[in-house]
From TrEMBL:
Keywords: ATP-binding, Membrane, Nucleotide-binding, Plasmid, Transmembrane, Transmembrane helix
One Pfam family hit: ABC_membrane
PROSITE patterns, sorted: ABC_TM1F (PS50929), ABC_TRANSPORTER_1 (PS00211), ABC_TRANSPORTER_2 (PS50893)
Record organism: Azospirillum humicireducens
Name this polypeptide is given: ABC transporter ATP-binding protein
């Protein structure tokens, strides 16, 4: 917890001056707020009871002025506070997102998107509330309480004692019900996270749900989650009603006692009516801060749970680290050399076990092998999503671990079987990943050229908005072939030295597969290519073909016969 609090504190620190302004505005607001009951007392006792009309006018105007100042102060406070509080939340979220961007595919295979989203959303907000709101609320509450108590003591010390007799009972009650509050809140948050997870998973698998006719089961599953959420929501509300109601009742008993004893003293002439009215107003103002302070303890416990959950996410370590002093490659031919590579996803179970491969600059090499043998794992290693456990991978003679990962991924492009696109236009997707300067330097002619080279020009010319056509949130309105060709045009614009084609034609029919292979060969002629495929069309024209088996590569003499045999 102390370490996590330090982590959260690091995001609050840059906003200290804004928060100090909030405290100053709160102080001023509290002062003005506390002056109002005092003015009421003077209006009743010195204006009304004494029949002083001039003083009555002055005090009433003072009351109006105090109301105006109080509104302005609280408005300004709210704006400054929102700026600081949102700044803290956004900075924390950006920090967690930056960490998520360093995590390997293995992390995304293990964690559900709903779970990560729940932590990015609910847990971060909980921590932000505690880190920013709690100190300010505590300070505000303490100041208001101290001011109210001081003024109550000034009006009547004995009455103050009577008023505060109920406070220990209220405090004890709230303390006792804390675990109940915490349990019900946690249960509700779990249930809401389950609902978020449901939508994240189901929306991306809607086609599957429809294809398998699982709509009814899924609707029932959602209804069950809703019922569970409603049950927990009602329980949390019941807890809220009780934990808010009982202290409220105790407070009313305290107020009744103040009015009874204070009223008797007013009747006896020992206390003025205005003093009793002002006293009761201060009593009302003191009750809120007390409950607020007790509520902060519950807030701290909730924040602790959220900090733990965020800590789990942040303790996931990146699989690779950028080198302290990256080396610059001497050549730019895209020659690849893999030496005695050993790597496994689980300790002691290597997927690649002593694999060696050399691809001279400009050569096209093919690779195939049974499903699950480690072909995609090899691609992930070549793109440095992981580092080898043993052995070495070098691009143009430089170990990948010595290259800046961003530069490596510019020089090595992967065209996979599913070419995911991001929301935006076709042009946005073509420019994706380029720096603003590079993207700005790409004029429409260059984009059109790349699109024509990828044989998308006919299709794009038929679209009313051409390259500015949005691809939609999931790009599901495009065919697999169209998505793949957009990805191919994107690869072209990045001008890689080494192109890895991981099952590039698996979604295409034989004729389209042949066309795509021929286009890639034409567009990337002279550049190094590694083609991973089960399909003979994709492996056509390779300088050498290897079979991946038991973690190593075996050269294949007759590619076509081998692949045809493997695919039977
Ligand atoms: N994130 C992961 N965590 C644990 N094991 C994994 C992970 N990714 C892959 N594996 C395992 O590593 C092995 C190689 O998987 P990989 O995806 O590289 O195979 P592949 O040859 O590309 O298969 P396919 O041709 O079916 O795509 C498989 O046994 C797979 O279950």
């Amino acid at each position: 917890m102390p370490h996590s609090l330090r982590w959260a504190g690091g995001f609050v620190r840059p906003h200290r001056s804004r928060l100090a302004v909030c405290v100053a505005l709160s102080l001023a607001g509290t002062g003005v707020g506390l002056a109002q009951p005092w003015l009421t007392k003077r209006i009743v006792d010195d204006g009304l009871a004494a029949g002083d009309a001039r003083l009555l006018v002055v005090l009433t105007l003072g009351m109006l002025g105090a109301g105006l100042v109080s509104t302005l102060l609280s408005g300004a406070n709210r704006l400054v506070y929102t700026r600081a509080s949102a700044g803290v939340l956004f900075a924390m979220r950006e920090h967690v997102y930056a960490h998520l961007q360093t995590l390997p595919p293995r992390f995304y295979a293990r964690w559900s998107a709903g779970d990560v989203l729940g932590r990015l959303d609910g847990d971060l907000a909980e921590v932000q509330r505690f880190a920013v709101d709690a100190p300010l609320s505590a300070l505000n509450a303490l100041l208001t309480l101290a001011g109210a108590v001081a003024l109550m003591l000034l009006i009547d010390p004995a009455l103050t004692l009577i008023a505060f007799l109920v406070l220990p009972a209220q405090a004890l009650f709230l303390r006792g019900t804390r675990p109940w509050v915490e349990r019900s809140t946690r249960a509700l948050r779990d249930s809401m996270a389950a609902l978020t997870g449901f939508f994240v998973q189901r929306l991306s698998a809607m086609k599957l749900i429809q294809s398998l006719g699982a709509e009814r089961q899924e609707a029932e599953r959602l209804a069950a989650l809703d019922r569970d959420c409603l049950r927990r929501l009602l329980r949390q509300q019941t807890v809220g009603i009780v934990t808010g109601g009982v202290p409220g009742l105790l407070g009313s008993a305290g107020t009744a006692a103040v009015f009874l004893w204070g009223g008797l003293r007013v009747i006896d002439g020992e206390l003025s009516l205005g003093a009793l009215i002002a006293f009761s107003a201060y009593l009302g103002r003191a009750a809120g801060p007390v409950q607020g302070l007790l509520g902060l303890i519950v807030g701290a416990q909730r924040a602790r749970v959220s900090l733990d959950r965020l800590g789990e996410l942040l303790s996931e370590s990146p699989a690779v680290r950028p080198p302290a002093r990256p080396l610059s490659p001497t050549g730019r031919g895209g020659a690849l050399s893999v030496e005695s590579l050993v790597f496994g996803h689980e300790a002691g179970a290597p997927v690649l076990d002593g694999l060696s491969l050399t691809i001279p600059a400009g050569a096209k090499v093919g690779l195939h092998g049974p499903s699950g043998v480690g072909k995609s794992t090899l691609t992930d290693l070549l793109h440095r999503h992981y580092d080898p456990e043993r052995g070495r991978i070098a691009l143009d003679g430089v170990d990948l671990r010595d290259l800046d990962p961003a530069l490596l991924r510019r020089r090595v492009a992967v065209l996979g079987q599913d070419a995911p696109l991001l929301p935006g236009t076709i042009a946005d997707n073509l420019r994706f990943g380029l720096s603003p300067a590079e993207a700005g330097a790409l004029d429409k002619d260059t984009l059109t050229e790349a699109v024509a080279a990828a044989q998308l020009d006919g299709w794009i010319a038929g679209l009313p908005r051409g390259l500015d056509t949005p691809v939609g949130a999931w790009a599901s309105a495009l065919s697999g072939g169209q998505r793949q060709r957009i990805a191919l045009a994107r690869c072209l614009l990045r001008k890689p030295d080494l192109l890895i084609l991981d099952e590039p034609v698996s979604a295409l029919d034989p004729a389209a597969a042949e066309r795509l292979t021929a286009d890639v060969d034409r567009l990337f002629a002279g550049r190094t290519r590694l083609v991973i495929s089960h399909r003979a069309e994709a492996l056509a024209g390779c300088d050498a073909v290897y079979r991946l088996e038991r973690g190593r590569l075996e050269p294949v003499a007759d590619t076509m016969a081998e692949v045809a045999c493997a695919s039977r």
